[in-house]
Amino acid sequence: MNNSVDPQALFSLGYGLYVITAASGDRSSGMIGNVVSQVSVDRIAVSMNKGGFTAGLVRESGRMNVNVLDETAPFALFQRFGFASGRDTDKFAGLSFSRSANGLPVLSEHCNAFLSLRVVETVDLGSHWLFVCEVEESKKHTDAPSMTYAYYHANVKPKPKPAAKKRWVCKICGYEYEGDELPPDFVCPICNHPASDFELQ
Ligand code: FE
How far is the CA of 181 from the centre of ligand 1 (A)? Predict the structure, then answer.
């Protein structure tokens, strides 16, 4: 990137979030994807990291299902499909799902629609495959709003716990000050004694 490129600007791009399922032979898997876009009247483009197990299944089979996550999707669903590899775990264990005409898993819980896609062209993007696809089957489940990446970060992803605040107590009157650091020029609002009369608890 040259000097006129601000990488922060890339964070301004909006994305949806999807569970993409695929299978080849007797192996099936799913992943969380965020790059799925309708790019023409009859083409959907899906980008996947080449290292992913699901991407390999799509390469072999030329098929995938895109399940559109809605705003009810809990963090556990992202953990299930996003934080482990399908090489090691059965990501569908204990999950209720049906199958579309292509035989691939369809999730209806916490998803508002699905698309069954057939790959018609694959573009090598270095780190990623860009699959250009046609829609073979699709169905809308509900009117629930689709999950966006911004919504996920604001409402679904657990927030880091704030560090515990420190507490200083005025030795004169017992007033308590909470914060990261007691300012050296602090004056007790109750008894007007200086910071030197405060004790860290
Ligand atoms: Fe005081």
Answer: 17
How large is the average pLDDT for residues 149-164?
Answer: 88
Interatomic CA distance for residues 63 and 118, integer angstroms: 5
The torsion defined by the Cα of 146, 148, 150 and 156, in degrees rounded to 10, comes to: 70
How far is ligand 1, taken at its centre, from the CA of residue 178, in Å? Answer: 14
Q: Which residue has the tokens 């993409």?
A: 20
C-alpha of residue 180 to centroid of ligand 1, in Å = 19
Q: What is the mean pLDDT of residues 67-89?
A: 92
Whether residue 130 is predicted with pLDDT greater than 70 in this model: the reply is yes
The pLDDT of residue 1 is above 70: no
CA 16–ligand 1 middle distance (angstroms): 54
Question: Which of 5 and 119 is assigned the larger pLDDT?
Answer: 119
How many angstroms does the Cα of residue 20 sit away from the middle of ligand 1? 61
pLDDT category at 161 given cuts 50, 70, 90 is confident
The helix/strand/coil state of 146 is strand
CA 23 from chain centre, in angstroms, equals 22
Residue 5 is encoded by which pair of tokens?
């490129």
- Residues in the chain, total: 201
* Ligand 1 centroid, distance to 189 Cα (angstroms): 7
| Single-letter amino acid code for the residue at 11 | F
The alpha carbon of 162 and the centre of ligand 1 are apart by a number of angstroms equal to 27
Residue (of 172, 170, 173) closest to 201 by Cα position: 170
